[in-house]
Amino acid sequence: MLQVPVACKSCPCGYVFINRKLLKVKHSEKSSPYTEVNNTISSKDLRILFLYEFKLGHSAAAASRNIISVFGEGSVSERTIRWWFGKFRSGDLSLQNEPRGRPRSVLNEDQLRAMVEAKPKAAIRGLAADLGVSATTISRRLAAIGKVKKSDRWVTAVDG
User: Fold this and answer.
1) Of the four listed, 26, 36, 47, 157, which is most buried by Cβ atoms within 10 Å?
2) How far is residue 3's CA from residue 25's CA, in Å, rounded to a whole number?
3) Could you state, in chain order, the average pLDDT of each consecutive group of 10 residues for the chain (160 residues)?
4) Domain ranges of the chain
5) 6-89, what's its fold?
6) What 8-state DSSP symbol labels residue 20?
7) Which residue(s) pair with 132 in the sheet?
8) How does strand 153-156 pair with strand 147-150?
């Protein structure tokens, strides 16, 4: 369910709520223009605000100014808002991050093991070319499956 910031409708107090959570409080005479309710705002809440500002048709710079005026310097960078606005413009209105990290290996260890057993004198570069991966990948995977080079042959490592 999409959560959208909602301004107080009963009076012109300037309060803004997301899911009944107070986000913005009007200032008093002796405080800064806006008093923060908590020192931090969650990434999820910020993304909701980004989408809200995007749907209002604001520019990334205007959205940045609006959010910083409420939550203070350092709460968000304009560059981050530009990135999210680009994502929204491309049609992806999802508020989730894409998966990150190392891509899954395309190397089949069973195939590597079979190749090494069929050709025990094979060089790492040759195995890499045959399997379409880097020599470093082959070297790491051979170590992981317990194969070591002894007397110019790939053999299973023996603890000793």
Assistant:
1) 47
2) 19
3) 56 55 46 45 90 94 92 89 95 87 80 89 90 89 85 68
4) 6-89, 109-156
5) Arc Repressor Mutant, subunit A (1.10.10)
6) T
7) none
8) antiparallel
